[in-house]
């Protein structure tokens, strides 16, 4: 492409290229702003996820419920398996039961991937955690977790949570046992 002969004059190809660049730049500005807003929203939701998880594993259900907003149409796929549950029982009795079940937990959130689209944010994470669960002594209770958050006004609500304990690889035989719902005892494996 040659330089224009007169200052300020552009040939047809140069004019088209300059116009195209200007149009692309104008389109990129809202995208850049949206990306910054998405990044801020994702960071905020990650902070919520980390704080609520730490409170949950400590058994501090009052703080947990203050940090997280559960959507009315919430769906939970528990790490224990079974069917999905819908809704959330935040009664004082249920929160007290959960407080007794989870004790002295320590947590660290490892975010593997995030997705954002409009009013939805998806977090793919590993919750690295130890604690006393269900009366068992302290042990590793790390989980692979996917959470979906939906924006409701200015608040991000937890819409869906799916967790499993398969942070450590298992064999096909072990997975087969789990899939059948009949894990073998150590004696049967013998």
Task: Give the key terms.
5 helices, 190 residues, Nuclear Transport Factor 2, Chain: A, disordered N terminus, 41% helix, 7-stranded mixed beta sheet, alpha+beta, globular
Characterization of the model:
- With 190 residues, this protein is of the alpha+beta class.
- It has a single domain, classed as Nuclear Transport Factor 2, Chain: A (Roll), CATH 3.10.450.
- Helix content is 41%, strand content 33%.
- Strands 1, 2, 3, 4, 5, 6 and 7 form a seven-stranded mixed β-sheet that branches.
- The protein starts with 11 loop residues before the first helix and ends with a helix.
Could you spell the SSE succession in H and E letters? Answer: HHEEHEEEEEHH
Second CATH tier, the architecture:
Roll
Low-confidence stretches: 1-17, 26-33
Mean pLDDT: 85
Radius of gyration, in Å, reads 25 Å
The structural domain count equals 1
> Total number of helical segments?
5
Give the end-to-end Cα distance, rounded to a whole number of Å: 78 Å
Shape: globular
Structural class: alpha+beta
Helical content band: 40-55%
**Major sheet:** 7 strands, mixed
Strand-residue fraction?
25-35%
Could you tell me the number of beta strands?
Answer: 7
Which CATH class applies here? Alpha Beta
As for the CATH topology, it is Nuclear Transport Factor 2, Chain: A
């Amino acid at each position: 492409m040659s330089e224009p002969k007169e200052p300020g004059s552009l040939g047809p190809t140069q004019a088209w290229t300059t116009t195209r660049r200007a149009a692309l730049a104008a389109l990129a500005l809202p995208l850049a702003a949206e990306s910054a807003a998405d990044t801020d929203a994702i960071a905020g939701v990650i902070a919520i996820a980390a704080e609520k998880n730490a409170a949950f594993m400590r058994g501090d259900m009052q703080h947990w419920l203050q940090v997280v907003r559960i959507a009315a149409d919430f769906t939970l796929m528990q790490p224990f398996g079974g069917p999905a549950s819908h809704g959330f029982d935040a009664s004082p009795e249920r929160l007290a039961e959960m407080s007794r079940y989870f004790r002295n937990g320590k947590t660290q959130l490892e975010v593997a991937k995030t997705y954002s689209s409009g009013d939805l944010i998806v977090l793919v994470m590993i919750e690295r955690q130890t604690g006393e669960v269900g009366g068992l002594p302290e042990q590793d209770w790390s989980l692979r977790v996917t959470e979906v958050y939906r924006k409701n006004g200015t608040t991000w609500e937890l819409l869906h949570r799916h967790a499993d304990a398969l942070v450590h690889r298992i064999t096909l035989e072990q997975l087969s046992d789990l899939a059948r719902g009949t894990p073998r005892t150590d004696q049967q494996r013998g």
